[in-house]
Amino acid sequence: MTHRLRGPVRIVGTGLLGTSIGLGLAARGVEVQLVDASPTAMRLAADFGAGRPAEPGDRPELIVVAVPPDVTAQVVAAELEAFPDAVVTDVASVKAVPLAELRALGADVSRYLGSHPMAGRERSGALAGSGDLFVGRPWVIAGHDAISYQRGSLVDDLILDLGAVPIESTPDEHDRAVAIVSHLPQLVSSLMAARLADAPDEALRLAGGGVRDVTRVAASDPALWIQILGANAPAVVEQLRALQADLASLTDALEAIDASGSRRAVADALRAGNEGVARLPGKHGTHTRFTRVQVRIDDRPGQLARLLTDIGDAEVNLEDVRIEHAEGAQFGVVEITVVPEAVQRLHEALEELGWQVVA
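Given the sequence above, the corresponding structure tokens read:
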């Protein structure tokens, strides 16, 4: 594989994103210099192989600022001043506010290009880092008029070396986009999960894949999300108002379900959801439609490996997979996602090998 960055690359902040970037670059032979306000966090990331502690006299080619949003602009400004020959990017999840703050500070934004990898985990810190975190994931480059193509190409090289897919945008376009595809889902997930806090134990024992899917990101760090939402509040409020209106209409319809038009209103809301989810890109960014096949699997060692091997032997390409367990049951259900034309062949092959296809 051809690597584009020569390095060195200085990473400021050794949380999940900073450590993951360091791990990915170090694995590709790029010299990585690590900096963190916490010496313990920095040494931990270094111990995991994300790079080495930065030293006086280092002269990085590219600087990646991976710190919380409320201090991003100040740290970027300090890095631009300390390293006048380096290009600086940041990976904060909002882009318009840091750029505006840098201009207000009088920073040299001709060497700054904000970016945002659309990748993450519910866990944070160096322990959650992975050099493969960005593979196949979109990574936004929030361009502006003050930076040249030549300087900005270093950020392109960073993204491509980490296996991500560069997506060009403006800071304002980016912030409006993440409001609907990232920030609103986080709030919906958190609000839904909050409904479970006082739910009876009997209800929670019935929890299946639906509620787990909706609430998965509710485990995210509240302190970080307060900063993200605060920096993108206008765009998030716009989406919340629209959702609020939809919820009010749906509530009114259900309260008077026997009234003329109420059932249609509920059906229209559900159908709109079908249409929305159908627009989401699938594997490799395509809009290919997929079908789910469910297979019962015993809770014994080696069963999942055997099932996946049997799927491969049937020459069926697996697009996605997940497992659901019912409380107290000694078996689970594996949900396999494949292209529709492979369903019949997969069904027949699995049943011939003794698997119970349940749906």
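The first strand starts at residue 9 and ends at 12. Try to locate this feature in the token string yourself.
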